[in-house]
Specification:
Elements: H1 3-26, E1 31-36, E2 39-45, E3 50-55, E4 61-67, E5 70-76, H2 82-85, E6 88-89, E7 95-98, E8 103-108
Antiparallel strand pairs: 1-2, 1-8, 3-4, 4-5, 5-6, 7-8
Bound molecules: zinc ion (ZN).
Amino acid sequence: MNKKDVTLVAIILIAAIAFMIPGVFFKDSGKALIYVGKRLYGVYDLSSDTSIHLDNGHGTVNDIEISGGEVYMKDATCPGRQCVRSGHIRYSNQSIVCAPAGIMIIIRSGDDNEYDAVTD
Ligand SMILES: [Zn+2]
């Protein structure tokens, strides 16, 4: 191999690794499904950090945070704050419920599209 070949191989390898890494790390990354009053409010990819501010208009405000592949109730004004104390969730079918606000957060794995399969 001359120097030019080595450079070419290196570029191909870097491109291949760059292409593979998202597949390796995000393959099983789930989605957080947020239900408000049993209606699907939104679907959020756990691989992208975001904050969701929910105000139900009845005095209950919930701040949901997605960070580092986890989702948690960062803050809430509901009585008891059980949802905040639920902590962080990251695995499929784990959930956080805020009963006073009628909010449910549930995690579904990336290849599970049964978003409507929620039972009481
Ligand atoms: Zn709550």
